[in-house]
Design a protein that fits this description.
The protein has 19 helices and 4 strands. The strands form 2 sheets. The protein has a two-stranded antiparallel sheet with strand order 1-2. A two-stranded antiparallel ribbon has the order 3-4. The two termini are 29 Å apart.
Length: 418
């Protein structure tokens, strides 16, 4: 999704677009998939009932879940580790009993010390997420490792995540990959996806696109939306498989059906650009809008652009401005959102024309740290410098001085922290 030489009045607009290092075209609108160093979906299905990206990562029936609270309490008094775990889980989630994190912690520790792998895994998650207060990766690693060594597939996946990030341990991609393989052998579906990503980037293992596709497909066919997304992207760019946009669309749609955020912006971009299909701004707008609604930052910023130019809808500068304002709250889109807001102030679109504010915003945009070294934008620092040069030609010396004085205020206003 890229605009070249488009104008609204005298408005020359250089469109943002986020692209991962895996993309070759800097004008591509899509965030494709995460890099190997940030590939793992948060593994935290905890006793507090947390999930990641709508995926029930645990998906294992509660132990003794059919027992009444009274029966469970009686068995817990006998120090039955399964009962201790289940009662702790219920205190943690507030299921059929008043939620009591401290009681949950006590019971989980008792069960974990008696060797219950589920309790050990839950304790690891709780310490890693700070569910007992502050985070404690050392304790989180210790309990996760104990569960993983007992063959607990979710704990093995979680341990791989800790080795990948170096949380509570020395970062070690080979160890991470090894534990992912164990988790996959135990039938834990999200592990397939992560193994595919490791093969794709050659992290902890020799790069192998064919193997990446094999694992993506196993995860996708088992219903993992992240695997479906990655398989769709592989078909979109023809990596490890023959390029096939119809297949890309099919897998993106499956991923979207499970609410995977980035699939919305990828699918929207296919329709926006007309990649081996008819350009369809209405569909692009729909998927960007849906993606933005569930919190996809890339969809949000591109939705603002469509409202700005009236593509698939009537032009609406108010909506565009408010969307860019919202996008400025996110690290990944702040760089471009602030630039877009500067453009709107420079040209008086929805807001009153204000060259001083525009100047301060442009200068602030240059200083915003990039969200990741693997994320690139279709606008560069050179583009912003050009915009500043053009703007200064319209300003008096006093206005430029006022703009310089405004920079610190603007940076604070938009949360720009150097």
């Amino acid at each position: 999704m890229y605009h070249s030489n488009k104008s609204v009045g005298t408005f020359y607009y250089i469109l943002l677009l986020l692209v991962l290092c895996s993309c070759n075209s800097s004008s591509d609108a899509v965030v494709k998939e995460t890099s190997a160093t940030s590939a793992t979906v948060t593994t935290s299905h905890s006793w507090a009932g947390q999930t990641a990206n709508g995926i029930d990562l645990y998906n294992i029936p509660p132990k003794l879940g059919s027992l009444s609270l009274f029966e469970l309490q009686q068995r817990a008094k006998q120090k039955d580790p399964e009962a201790l775990y289940e009662l702790g889980r219920r205190y943690g989630s507030g299921e059929g009993i008043d939620r009591n994190p401290q009681k949950a912690k006590q019971l989980l520790i008792e069960a974990a010390e008696k060797g219950d792998a589920d309790a050990q895994n839950e304790l690891g998650i709780a310490y890693n997420q700070g569910l007992f207060g502050s985070t404690d990766y050392n304790k989180g690693f210790r309990w996760t490792q104990k569960a993983a060594q007992q063959g607990h597939p979710v704990a093995q996946y979680n341990l791989a995540d800790m080795y990948e990030k170096g949380e509570g341990c020395q970062q070690n991609y080979k160890q991470s990959f090894s534990w992912l393989q164990k988790s996959a052998k135990g039938g834990f579906v999200p592990a397939y996806t992560e193994i595919g990503i490791y093969y794709r980037y050659g992290t902890g293992v020799n790069q192998n696109f064919n193997e990446a596709i094999n694992y993506y497909r196993r995860g996708a066919e088992a219903g993992d939306p992240k695997a479906q997304f990655n398989l769709g992207y592989s078909y979109e760019i023809g990596q490890g498989v023959l390029k096939n946009i119809k297949e890309a669309i099919r897998w993106y749609e499956k991923s979207i059906a499970k609410g995977f955020p980035s699939a919305y912006s990828n699918l929207a971009s296919i329709y926006y650009e007309g990649k081996e299909t008819e350009i369809n701004f209405n569909k692009a707008l729909y998927y960007f809008d849906e993606g933005a609604r569930i919190g996809d930052e890339k969809s949000l910023i591109n939705l603002g652009v469509m409202y700005l130019f009236g593509e698939g809808t009537s032009a609406d500068y108010r909506k565009a401005y408010n969307i860019f304002l919202k996008a400025s709250n996110f690290v990944s889109t702040r760089y471009v959102a602030v630039f877009n807001l500067a453009q709107m102030y420079e040209n008086g679109l929805y807001v009153r024309k204000n060259l001083v504010k525009a100047y301060a915003l442009y200068c602030s945009a240059i200083q915003i740290p990039q969200a990741s070294p693997n994320i690139h934008f279709s606008i560069t620092e050179a583009d912003i410098h050009d915009s500043i040069t053009t703007l200064k030609a319209q300003m008096t010396a006093a206005e430029i001085a006022a703009g310089e004085a405004e920079i610190t205020k603007v940076m604070k206003e938009y949360g720009i922290d150097l």
